[in-house]
Amino acid sequence: MRIVIIGLVFAAIILAGGTAYLLNTYLSSQEAEIASKAPKAPTTQVLVAKADLPTGTVVNDSNTQWVPWPEDAVQEAYLVKTRDSNPMSEIIKDKHVTRRAISKGDPITMVKLYKADNAGFMRGSLRPGMRAIAVKASADSASGGFILPGDNVDVMLTHNLLRRAMERTGSTSDDFVALEYTSETIMENLRVLAIDQNVSEFQGGAVLGKTVLLEVTPKQAEKLNTAKVMGTLYLVLRSAETGETEHVTSFTTDVEVSPLLSSFKSFMSGTDPRLDGNLGATADEMADGGGKPIPVAKSPAPEVKPAPAPQPRAAPKPKAKRDITIYRGAGTPAQAVALPSDAGDIIQ
Q: How many domains is the chain partitioned into structurally?
């Protein structure tokens, strides 16, 4: 009886599995049939990158491909293949090179390419009217080496020229007695062209190079060369997200950084700025050592009392004397002897 029940259970399982398989096959065939009958949107063959193409890559058949592209999404700059024309033939013939990095699957346009025999490698990577200038870099001055080609950076200058200017002009203003160093953001949103001789935007990890090549305007190139001899330059990596607000003027002095220097006047006048709530004062207050001075809490000095005048000593009182009588024997007269009072009652 048990064997019959077990057999029926297995038969039911097999039957359920077969039914599910047949139903799935039927639904798949119906979906394929419906999809084949659906009207297809017209497409056009568009040239795209078959793999990531770093700046300076020679474009050829091995790293590009033609893919169907919806006609309503084709832009005018895209390279389109038709029965009468094939732009790829001209690109290979004239040996075109990528002007900037192209990611895999991105459409290729002539704006992103240039002829290798018409311009130098880096010259062809520059946008019209732009220049390239190199800046010395290290792990400390270039965001730890995480700046890569294609990134955008700000340039910060740190110097002590204000102090030197005050010394040359003979300024003795007490407002800047503690001012020594200043950091200024002198340029923003500059594009990085290369790190040393590396121009690939697809290299992962940090790149510790000695020079960073920046794309700048002619005026920015002049400013950077002047800034190189003014102090130390630092490259600050910007976020990849767009929409950041650019600051026209931005600088920070050592007086703003140090709570002690920001309260320098109060400190030198003998007050303790730590007891004041204005250690985080505004920039104007910091410039002149702002904040209201609060007297330093000091322990009260011990009261010195004059030494008491010496009291005259009383003359010692004469000690009372006691008389005793000594008997020496028969026939000898008695003799009286005086005895001090502190001798006690020993002698009676």
A: 2
Please provide residue 202's backbone torsions phi and psi, each rounded to the nearest 5 degrees. -105, 5
What's the pLDDT score for residue 120? 58
pLDDT computed for residue 322 by the predictor: 59
Tell me how far the alpha carbon of residue 261 is from its chain's centroid.
Answer: 23
Give the per-residue pLDDT at 214. Answer: 93
- Locate all alpha helices (DSSP H) within the chain, ordered by sequence: 2-37, 87-93, 161-169, 218-230, 254-257, 259-262, 264-268, 283-287
Give the domain extent around 78.
43-115
187 - beta bridge partners? 155
pLDDT of residue 348: 44
Residue 121 phi, psi (nearest 5): -60, -55
Query: Which residue ranges in the chain fall short of pLDDT 70?
Result: 1, 35-39, 117-122, 124, 171-178, 197-208, 242-249, 273, 276-348
Residues 212 and 164 occupy one common structural domain: yes
Strands 211-216 and 131-136, bridge-based pairing: antiparallel
Rounded Cα–Cα distance for residues 146 and 11 (Å): 65
DSSP 278: T
In this structure, what token pair is assigned to residue 187?
A: 């340029």
Contact 212, 137 (CB under 8 A): yes
Specify the pLDDT at position 223: 94
Q: Is 31 exposed, middle or buried (0-12, 13-18, 19+ CB in 10 A)?
A: exposed
Which of these, 240, 238, 291, 241, lies nearest to 264 by C-alpha position? Answer: 291
State how far the Cα of 136 lies from the Cα of 317, in Å rounded to an integer. 102
95 shares a domain with 62 = yes
